[in-house]
Specification:
Residues 120-230 form the Cytochrome oxidase subunit II copper A binding domain. The chain has helices spanning 2-14, 25-58, 77-105, 221-229, and strands at 108-109, 123-130, 133-137, 143-144, 147-150, 155-161, 166-169, 177-179, 185-189, 195-201, 213-219. The chain starts with a helix and ends with a helix. It has 231 residues and is α+β, with helices and mostly antiparallel strands. It is elongated and about 90 Å long. It has one domain (13-58, 80-231): Sandwich (Immunoglobulin-like).
Length: 231
């Protein structure tokens, strides 16, 4: 009974993290790769289990064939080509979109991003990670312990760490991104829906790592401007 309660609590706790409920283009692209990988896995499992049960039924021992000696077959080019090309085809189907999406959405360091085009209307936010807290500094100098973003507008997050390696993660807005001491990483995100989303450090960074969480509030642009000017 005690174990059942522990499992239930873990499941309820996990409900706060919704990786497959994307609210930005980056998160949608990453979720698409997860669904694609899962679909390919289902295809492979279906083929394996269908063949397993087919052969188990077809070649089961009966009173009629228990003394038969099967014919020895040394090669079958058709089968060998099939089980070689089929995995290659599946890997290609997965690899091509994975490379394209990864190249497109991967954050870059400040030096790597020099000369890259950025939305001129984008907002820039300094994100500082330190054990065991997050600090968000906005363009007008306001600091907050929560991330506030306008909807449908690109935000460039300047990720920096004051001590050890942390990992910035807001599941509904994009995948995990390591925050490395001495290196500024630019993470671009454009939220597509208003709401409050849980963010956290996804890299174990010490005894109070579990407390390193923050809220991400996505507001209408006017509400965002109003919040920015508040004390």
């Amino acid at each position: 009974m005690k174990k059942a309660w522990v499992v239930l609590l873990l499941l309820l706790n996990g409900c706060q993290i919704r990786t497959l409920n994307p609210h930005s283009q980056v998160a949608e692209d990453q979720a698409m790769l997860i669904y694609l990988s899962f679909a390919i896995m289902i295809v492979v499992m279906a083929v394996v289990f269908i063949l397993l049960f087919r052969f188990a039924w077809k070649y089961k021992q009966t009173a009629k064939n228990k003394n038969d000696v099967p014919e020895e077959i040394n090669s079958n080019k058709r089968l060998e080509i099939t089980w070689t090309l089929f995995p290659v085809l599946l890997l290609a189907i997965l690899a091509v979109p994975t490379i394209l999406v990864t190249y497109q959405v991967s954050p870059k360091s400040t030096s790597e991003a020099e000369g890259e085009a950025t939305d001129e209307a984008a907002i820039h936010i300094q994100v500082t990670a330190e054990r065991f807290d997050w600090t968000f500094t906005y363009e007008n100098g306001r600091q907050s312990d929560r991330l506030v973003l306008p909807v449908n507008k690109q935000a460039v997050l300047h990720l920096q760490s004051e001590d050890v390696i942390h990992s910035f993660w807001v599941p509904e807005l994009g995948g995990k991104q390591d925050v490395i001491p001495g290196k500024e990483i630019l993470f671009k995100v454009t939220p597509e829906k208003t709401g409050t989303f849980l963010g956290k450090c996804a890299e174990f960074c010490g005894v109070n790592h579990s407390l390193m969480r923050f809220d991400t509030n996505v507001l209408q642009e006017q509400a965002y401007r109003t919040w920015l000017q508040e004390e």
